[in-house]
Amino acid sequence: MDRPSAVERSLREAAPHEIFDVIRSLIEDRHGALAVDLLLADYAMTRLQPVGVLPYTRPPVPVYDSSPGRAFGSQEAHCVYDPSASTAAIYLPVSVRGDRLGILDVTLRVGQGEELDAAVLEDLQECADALAHEVVVAERDTDLFLQARRAERLTLAAEMQWQLLPGRSCARPEYSLGAQLEPAYAIFGDCFDWSASADDLYVTVSNGMGEGIDAALLTNLCVNALRNARRAGLSLSDQACLADQAVYGQHGGERYLSTLLFRFHLPTGEVEIIDAGSPRVWRVREGVVEPIELEAQMPLGMFEDTAYVPQHFRVEPGDRLLFISDGVYDALSPGGEKYSLRALASSIRSTRLLPAPQVPRVMLQELLGHRGSGPAADDSLVMCLDWHGRSSIRGR
C-alpha cells in the first residue's frame, strides 16, 4: 500500500495556518530556493493575491499579462530565466480536482545557460498539488487563505454566497466545468451548485429575487433544500418539489427563485433537465452557437405544491453548454442600451478556444465593457460546461 509522501505527512501534521510556511521550508531545504510565495486567485479571478502576514503582503499580480497569470491560465508550469542574476522563477498551478486556487512561485539559482532538471520541476509540482489539497482542508479551520483572496471587502450577502458555492471549477474525464459571479464582492441572489457520483453529475443554477441579505437568505434556503433532497436520493423532480415547498413554506409565494436543475448521466450523455423559470442555456456544437429552447415551469416557491416535469436531451462529446443568468441579458450600457443576444453570441464564439474554467471570467469582463464601471443593477452569472463523454475516452 502506498504511503503518504514526506511532504504530505508534514503538511497534515502542521497547524492549518502554518501549512504554507511548512511547504516553503521544505522547498528551501530540498532545492535551495531563494524565495517561495503562494499567490491565490481573488474572488473576481482578475488578480493573484500573495499569502503573507496580513495586511502586510506584497502587491497583487494581474491574471492578465503576467508570468504567474500565464501559468494560472494554462494550468502548466511556466519558467522565467534571469541570466543576469543566474536565477529561474517557476510558476506552478495550485489546483485540486480542476478547481484553480492559485500559483506557487519558486525562485531557484541556476548556472549560466542551464535549464531546470525535469525531476526538479516534477517534485515542485507535487509540492504544489499537495499544498492545494491542504489549503482546501485548512479553510475549514483558518481564515488565512480566505482573507488572502480578498482584493477588497466582501459585502455580508456576498460572504454568505461565496461560502455556499462548491468551488469555481471542477473537472473529471467526462467533463470540465467552470462558473463565475459578478460583481464578485457584492453578489446577492445568483448562485450555482454541482455534485458528482460515479455515474451522475447534478448541476443547479439559481437566480433569487430581491437584493442584499434577503436575496442571499433566499438562495441559501433553496440551495440547501436541493442538497437535502439530492443527498436523500430523491429524483430530480422530487428535488425541485422539495425546494419549492421549502421556499413557499417560508415565504408564502412572496419570494421565489428561477432555477435550472440538471442531471447528466455520465456513461451516456443523457440529460434530464427542469427549467423552473430559469437562467437560459446556450449550446456550442461543431462551431454553431444556438440557444436551447426549454419548457419554462414555475419558479421555485411561487405557488404551493407545484409539480415539476423533467425534459430530456443528449450531449455529444465536444459540446459546450453555457448557463447565463438574467443579469447578463438585462445589463444596460451607460446610455441605457441592453446587452444584445448578438453581442452574447459573439462573446460565446470569441471564447470557444478557451478551457471551460476561463470562459465565465472572460465573458463577464466583456459584459463589464458594455455596462461600464458603475454599480451593477443586478448580479450576473455565467457557467460553462465542456462535455467530453466516456465513449470518446474509451475510443482513444
UniProtKB/TrEMBL annotation:
Annotated organism of origin: Streptomyces anulatus (Streptomyces chrysomallus)
Transmembrane segments: none
Pfam families (UniProt xref): SpoIIE
Lineage: Bacteria, Bacillati, Actinomycetota, Actinomycetes, Kitasatosporales
Keyword S-adenosyl-L-methionine belongs to the record: no
InterPro entries noted in UniProt: Bact_Sigma-Reg, PPM-type-like_dom_sf, PPM-type_phosphatase-like_dom
SMART domains the record matches: PP2C_SIG (SM00331)
Domain PPM-type phosphatase: 174-387
Keyword terms, alphabetized: Hydrolase
Protein name according to UniProt: Serine/threonine-protein phosphatase
Hydrolase keyword on record: yes
